[in-house]
Design brief:
Elements: H1 2-36, E1 40-41, E2 49-50, E3 64-65
Antiparallel strand pairs: 1-2, 1-3
């Protein structure tokens, strides 16, 4: 009975340590990707958004970096 209790406690501790590591990794990845993300938009049509420079499909103006 005592061996089973020890095994259960070790299994719970192992699962908790794995879940903590995976959350830390995903948070780090998300924060680094948001720092590099640049959004371009049209000054006349702010609903137009792009991840690369170009021209507005509505009016043809050059897209600018959204601040």
């Amino acid at each position: 009975m005592r061996k089973i209790s020890i095994i259960i406690v070790l299994a719970i501790m192992a699962s908790l340590s794995f879940s903590c590591k995976s959350k830390t990794t995903s948070t780090t990845t998300e924060s680094s990707s948001t720092e590099k993300k640049v959004v371009y938009t049209c000054s006349m049509h702010p609903e137009i958004k792009s991840d690369k420079p170009g021209e507005c499909p509505k009016c043809g103006m050059t897209l600018i970096v959204k601040e």
